[in-house]
Structures
1.
Amino acid sequence: MRCVFVQFRCIPGKTYEVADAIYEREVVSELYSTSGEFDLIAKIYIPEDADPGHFLNEKLFDIPGISRTLTTMTFKAF
């Protein structure tokens, strides 16, 4: 499994709806609300044989209320 972090910027007033929809998809390992430019951050494990872009697009990025995302790929853990 490959770990990625995805930050979500939500349309104002939609953060709780977006968070609920993300949890309903049962894709994320952890989900937190954050301060700063983004409203939520999720830790997601993607199967090694899956393309990260396709996986995230199919599983999460079609949720209404998301205005922007930022995906951070991870590499070797120290």
Note: Residues 2-73 form a domain with the Alpha-Beta Plaits fold (CATH 3.30.70.920).
2.
Amino acid sequence: MTTKIHMLADALGRPLRFIITGGQVHDATQTSALLEGQAASAVIADKAYDSNGFREQIAVMNAEAVIPSKRNRKVFIPHDQALYKDRNRIERCFNRLKHFRRFATRYDRRTIHFTGFIYLAAVMIWSA
């Protein structure tokens, strides 16, 4: 069975929260759980997260949604392009985690063991 890691990172590209699901689960289904209880001035995400529900959740947080509109959206919603350039920090966070061979190759058969290692790797990234 394949797995997928959904992650929330801070402005410095350090992991804050993650959820492991089956590989067929879309990223946007986990957004409310990842943002629950978080405070931010802006939430940066890619086009896959462009939904009215997610934008409403960000508005409830009193944060700015920095999400490009999907191509099929009837009314395009503008976003701060200068701030959107910082979205690469989540990609860098994943790349730092992939330096750990155990993370990159997913040797663990049980999800609980893999989850434990992600916590350990996240602590090592935070302390670096």
Note: The beta strands are 3-9, 15-22, 42-44, 64-66.
3.
Amino acid sequence: MLSCTKMITMCLQSSKQKHLQLQHQQKEQQNIFHDIFRRADKNDDGKLSFEEFNAYFADGVLTTEELKELFHSIDEQQNKNLDTEKLSDYFSQHLGEYLNVFSALESLNVAISKAVDKTKEVRQ
């Protein structure tokens, strides 16, 4: 039988492990979104204006007016641009079931990049 001290220690270690996994998962999410939003940031200032946001996300699903509403709901301080960190946080909170899909895509992207780099080395 386990003593109370051992049980508490096991619980704390389990909790710490879950916390570390959650931190890793959150970092992975942010990496995914940073990469996506960096592509949308055409002038490379680390922020998206509504024009950049609209150009990137306009896909026929949301109207320009709906995109404007979404942009303003994310831009809480109404400073007319979204930094990629704020945008990453917003979308990370709304991933739901797609988290595993994006994580798999990120892993695939890393694997492809490594393979391409290796091919470049071999050919040179």
Note: The domain at 24-123 is CATH 1.10.238.10 (Recoverin; domain 1).
